[in-house]
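Predict structure. Chain length: 169.
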Amino acid sequence: MPDLEQWPTGRLLTTAARLVEHAWNERLVDIGVTHAGVIALGVLEDQGAMTQASLAQIVRVQAQTMGKTLSRLESRGHVTRVRNDLDRRSHMVSISPAGRRVLEASADIERTLVPGGGLISEELRNHLKAVIRELGAPRWSSAAAGVASRDGGAGDGSDATGPAAPVPG
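Prediction complete.
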């Protein structure tokens, strides 16, 4: 193992994030979903049906990335997409009963991912939220303004680059 004591904090953070993502996906494969899929399902369960563009903004990914995630979820029956009555160019996405079951199973995986509950420390969570708010604010505020000016917030969001939604506190 490399000498972690010598690593800068940013390298520790990015390496830990990658390792958590890999660990999640290794365990989630058994229930037919990825970590990205779990995040999307969680937003849909909490906030209800929405467009792909809105979901991408909330999750803070590009709409193309969200489109790939939704295609995988839809092929497994975890979400449904229906044409948006207000804007025929977009679809409304909602979580299905199968998606709710997957979300419940993924909660157990999250709780047991790191022995000793290392990922649920309030101190760690607060530090990570501060980093996300500080480094994400300029990126997501300007990107959301660009999306709104291009398509008025409507459409399927294929040109969306990021959100303005706040990080949950």
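Summary: The two ends are 35 Å apart (CA to CA).
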